[in-house]
Amino acid sequence: MDDSHDEWIWNDGRSEGFSVAAVKKWMQGSATTGGHFGFTWSKWVPNKCNIFMWRAYLDRLPTKMALLRRSIQVDNCLCVWCDCSEETIEHILTGCCFSTDVWNAITTWCRISGIYAFHVKDLVDMHDYSGLVGNRRIVLHGIIIITCWRMWRARNEKLFSNKDPNVIEMVADIKTLGFLWVYFGL
């Protein structure tokens, strides 16, 4: 029998001991080596929207398919809007005909070329490839987050309150929230 004790050791390949700063340096170093750690939070949208987008990015939202993966029974696994495809976060935010109509309206309003996204990561990175600079790029990033959050709310309203979504009303709501939050947050 060995009388030694177990211990946790922080080893990031450097001689530093454990510290939050060492973890931050390690994480930043891994992001520059080709891995994308996450997404950039928008400073002018509420934290609830940023947290939602982060959870969507990690596929940690309770879509019907996510619930089935966790062995939670659901009535059916089809999208509540189109009733054609399995309900995943990618389908809700990028693949459904309803979300496509919303994105078309948003791109027209923002005066950018069409948003062609197949995954949540595409949405998270969209502002980087929009061609916009400065505050316009920062605002677009927030608008994308608000749009995704508002679509998730519309999905929940349909699922739990049987409220049919309306593209025009949703885009008006996104514009209103965007103007209010950018005015008070940026």
Features:
186 residues; mainly alpha; 8 helices; globular
Offer a concise description of the structure.
With 186 residues, this protein is mainly α. The protein contains 8 helices and no strands.
Describe the fold and architecture.
It is a single chain. The termini are far apart. The chain is mainly alpha-helical. The chain is built from 8 helices and no strands. It has helices at 20-32, 47-57, 64-69, 89-95, 97-110, 120-125, 134-161, 167-185.
Task: Explain the layout of strands and helices.
Blueprint: H1 20-32, H2 47-57, H3 64-69, H4 89-95, H5 97-110, H6 120-125, H7 134-161, H8 167-185
Helix pairs in contact: 2-7, 4-5, 5-8, 7-8
Rg value: 20 Å
Ends distance: 62 Å
Biggest sheet: strands, sense, closure? none
Mean residue pLDDT: 86
- Summed up, the domain count is 1
How many E-type strands? 0
Number of helices: 8
Shape: globular
Strand and helix order = HHHHHHHH
Strand content: under 5%
The structure class reads: mainly alpha
Portion of residues within helices: 55-70%
Low-confidence stretches: 30-36
